[in-house]
Records
---
Amino acid sequence: MKNLIIFVALAIFSLSCEKDDFDIDNPDVEQFVQQIKNGTYNNYALGEDGEKLWAIMPAFEKKHIPLLIQFAEDTSIVSPCGHFPVNPASSIPAYRVSENKASIMIGEYLLWCLQGIIEEKDFASLTPILLDLNSRVEKRLSGGEILEVRTHYQDWWEKYRQAHYTEELPLDRTTYIWR
């Protein structure tokens, strides 16, 4: 009887453990967002000696667009952010500074991932930084502005989801650009 109780307890314990594996070739958007937020995303290009070089962008596809738009509603700031996939070719810091720490706004970052899908690239630009061309100084967009940009992506998706969606890009006819 004691062995049966131990076996059942172990079975329950092993079933309740959260699976943290992430398939970058068939990514789960919700899992990706959760791992980015809690700092557990751990898919890196490795050097010859096995050292981590940079985080690898998951192979997001058109089918991931609706969830990326949905999760881009999150304007929370995440730090530390060394585990985010960013363009390894860029020498421009990809992060904003919040409370004296390098950080990323989840919504802005997810819209950047989405823009990469639309442009059929790993990375939409050198950095996941949105700029407003109407601004006289280069500054990071606020959460409200990111939500406004998200609305452009939502509207674009409603219009182009069934058509060839690269004919017009979500930020065409706006003052927003990716840096």
---
Amino acid sequence: MDKFDRIYKLHELLRDRRTPIPRAELVEQLELKSESSIYRLIRLLKDQLNAPIEWHDEIGGYYYKRDASGGTYELPGLWFNAKELQALIVFDRVLESLDPGLLKDHLAPLNRRIGELLKHQRLGLTEAARRVRVVGAAAKAPGRWFEAVAEALLQRRELRLRYHGRSKDQVSERVVSPQRLVHYRDTWYLDGWCHTRSALRTFAIDRIREAKERADTARDVPEADLDAHLASSYGIFAGKANKTAVLRFSANAARWVADERWHPQQIGQFLTDGRYELRVPYRDATELAMDVMRFGPEVEVAAPDSLREAVVERLRAALARYKPE
């Protein structure tokens, strides 16, 4: 624990305690060799950071003097301990890897402050740029309208969208109350209440052709309703789940699949012959069928018949492309 961490730790100890803390306890908690180090830290807190540290003669301990409203003192500026800084740096690397430059301008002031703090650290935090990588397969740019969508979402304003749907290959005009942003499989999506369709819908941000914020306040949909409609089924193909897929993986594939999270409400179990059975709720079979096909001969769709037939049809179509003419 270096000097920076000890200052932060001393502040936490004094802030969180209602009773004075003896010097011996502070020496132990701060991993100091002698009480003289305590005097230096307390002097630094009082003289340079204006901390209201008092000494209680009867009990023989230090404490923070509370203000007139009973509030406690907080360190001025932006302060993090070593673990919090490490977590923040890693998060920054993850966010940057998801979409380079996506929030660069918004986070610039925070990054500058962190940089100032790092000058006083010996934690190897600058290694994060080299040591932490997030690799996205077939990652997509968020689209030029990401910021406009995010701003309307946070300001709780309606959006007027021109949206190009892939399935019908058509552009439509929509008025949407944005509910939340979702990053799923290297693509950003907007969950929203579509006033044009009078229903919840999910929009791929990169398919938005134009987004304009409206003056009208966005309609709020309860979180439980959003989850029931948009998060209960498999993948991003929204809608309340009305079917359950039963997938049986070979003993070889089971070693990987047993550790995977296909759905928050999935149920998995090992069978007596070493295979792994996975039950996944879904509504639209499109994405689920594609994932099943990734495992080729290592998986069998046991139920329902409609999903089994959909996968068989895809496999037949794929095989047909390799038959000699």
